[in-house]
Design a protein that fits this description.
Strand content: 5-15%
Structural class: mainly alpha
Number of helices: 5
Order of helices and strands: HHHEEEHH
Shape: globular
Strand order of the largest sheet: 1-2-3
Largest sheet: 3 strands, antiparallel
Number of strands: 3
Distance between the termini: 26 Å
């Protein structure tokens, strides 16, 4: 059985928190599929529309980004690594992805976790 990099423990836990929050709070079931990221994008957009200040949502955004990273990791064989920029996901093609930053971009109206996943999985498959 393959072991995961020790840096993966935190984002895996954050991803599980996102699954629990959306299951309990919004009654959404996240199944680690690329399709489930549409729901996460929509939820982030709803939070933004409600006018929540960043200080109130940064932990939730981190969890949503970690969830997207876990979706990418599970579909590509990628792994979480600690870098000088913080936790990043590296896909087997050697590219680095920062889904937590993408979740923040989504909250600001300039990103999409679903599109990030599509790009990362396409790049890894090429």
């Amino acid at each position: 059985m393959a072991t995961r990099h020790p840096a993966a423990a935190r984002p895996i836990r954050w991803a599980a928190d996102a699954v629990a929050v959306l299951r309990e709070g919004a009654r959404l079931r996240l199944d680690y599929s690329a399709r489930s990221l549409w729901s996460v994008d929509r939820t982030i957009q709803e939070i933004r529309r409600d006018g929540a200040p960043y200080d109130a949502v940064h932990t939730v955004l981190r969890c949503f980004g970690a969830y997207a990273g876990e979706v990418i990791a599970r579909h590509t064989g990628g792994e979480w690594l600690e870098t000088h920029l913080g936790l990043m996901l590296r896909t087997p093609d050697g590219r680095y992805w920062d889904p937590v930053v993408e979740a923040r971009r989504c909250w600001s109206g300039d990103g999409s976790l679903h599109l990030l996943c599509r790009e990362a999985t396409a790049a890894a498959a090429a």
